[in-house]
Amino acid sequence: MPSPRSSRERRAGGSSSGRPEFLSLVSQRSPIPPDSPSRRKESGISAAAPMPEEDCMKLNPSFLGIALSSLLAIDLWASKRLGVCAGEGSTWGSARPLMKVIEISGHGIPWLLGTFYGLCQSDSSAAREVLLNLLFALLLDLVMVAVVKGIVKRPRPTHNKMDMFVTISVDKYSFPSGHATRAALVCRFVLRHLVLAIPLRVLMVLWVLIVSVSRVMLGRHNMTDVLFGLLLGYMLYSVVEYCWLSPLSAPALFALWSH
Ligand SMILES: CC(C)=CCC/C(C)=C/CC/C(C)=C/CC/C(C)=C/COP(=O)(O)O
């Protein structure tokens, strides 16, 4: 048996849209009397009787849609204003070389190569365990960011100059920021597994903040790319911790690195 909503939509000319702005247009052609309860419901005028849950749900996607578009508009506008190092001629264009050094400090290549080198050089099994897990974390991060970038396909900001040091194909997309995920992941990893003096721990957190802010200042990302990247990196560390590789759980891997 057809639901009351679907039969109403058929009467209204076959529209399947549940969005109120479309329903108000549709209702001009509807044979339902203007003061009927269902007409009041469609036009959003509150009736004495409580609205059925089905009709309340119709308003939410539209509200959510407006809220999301507003957030994205604010994000684009603010990110463009903060992109003060996006080009040599930008307001803070002279700071661009420094921003690019910060960019390299969070790039995948130095982190992967450094960890790989450390793994080959390490002679203690405890160090090997930590470095092997760091390598796993960095590779997992690379894969996850590539997957999300490939799904979301959000283009980089229009003011970005694509002059980045070594990129892969999905790096033409900006959501999420790979630098932000890596910085958050590495920071959590290092704070958990390295015994560092307090000033160094503070420096590590500051580095995450500087790398994150520099992504927007360089014009590489919108703010939401960076915020989501930080969140993703933070969560990825929990995955690494959960899958922690040890000589017991992955003996073959550890046999590879034992001298
Ligand atoms: C050395 C080992 C063990 C493996 C190398 C594997 C490999 C394919 C590395 C690629 C590293 C690479 C090119 C990463 C891209 C980093 C990057 C430019 C991310 C984009 O960051 P974003 O913040 O602009 O999104």
TrEMBL record:
<dbReference type="GO" id="GO:0005789">
    <property type="term" value="C:endoplasmic reticulum membrane"/>
</dbReference>
<keyword id="KW-0443">Lipid metabolism</keyword>
<keyword id="KW-0256">Endoplasmic reticulum</keyword>
<feature type="transmembrane region" description="Helical">
    <location>
        <begin position="234"/>
        <end position="257"/>
    </location>
</feature>
<dbReference type="InterPro" id="IPR000326">
    <property type="entry name" value="PAP2/HPO"/>
</dbReference>
<feature type="region of interest" description="Disordered">
    <location>
        <begin position="1"/>
        <end position="51"/>
    </location>
</feature>
<dbReference type="InterPro" id="IPR036938">
    <property type="entry name" value="PAP2/HPO_sf"/>
</dbReference>
<comment type="similarity">
    <text>Belongs to the PA-phosphatase related phosphoesterase family.</text>
</comment>
<dbReference type="Pfam" id="PF01569">
    <property type="entry name" value="PAP2"/>
</dbReference>
<keyword id="KW-0539">Nucleus</keyword>
<feature type="compositionally biased region" description="Basic and acidic residues">
    <location>
        <begin position="1"/>
        <end position="12"/>
    </location>
</feature>
<dbReference type="GO" id="GO:0042392">
    <property type="term" value="F:sphingosine-1-phosphate phosphatase activity"/>
</dbReference>
<feature type="domain" description="Phosphatidic acid phosphatase type 2/haloperoxidase">
    <location>
        <begin position="130"/>
        <end position="241"/>
    </location>
</feature>
<feature type="transmembrane region" description="Helical">
    <location>
        <begin position="194"/>
        <end position="214"/>
    </location>
</feature>
<keyword id="KW-0812">Transmembrane</keyword>
<keyword id="KW-0472">Membrane</keyword>
<feature type="transmembrane region" description="Helical">
    <location>
        <begin position="131"/>
        <end position="152"/>
    </location>
</feature>
<dbReference type="GO" id="GO:0006629">
    <property type="term" value="P:lipid metabolic process"/>
</dbReference>
<protein>
    <recommendedName>
        <fullName>Polyisoprenoid diphosphate/phosphate phosphohydrolase PLPP6</fullName>
        <ecNumber>3.6.1.68</ecNumber>
    </recommendedName>
</protein>
<keyword id="KW-0378">Hydrolase</keyword>
<dbReference type="GO" id="GO:0005637">
    <property type="term" value="C:nuclear inner membrane"/>
</dbReference>
<keyword id="KW-1133">Transmembrane helix</keyword>
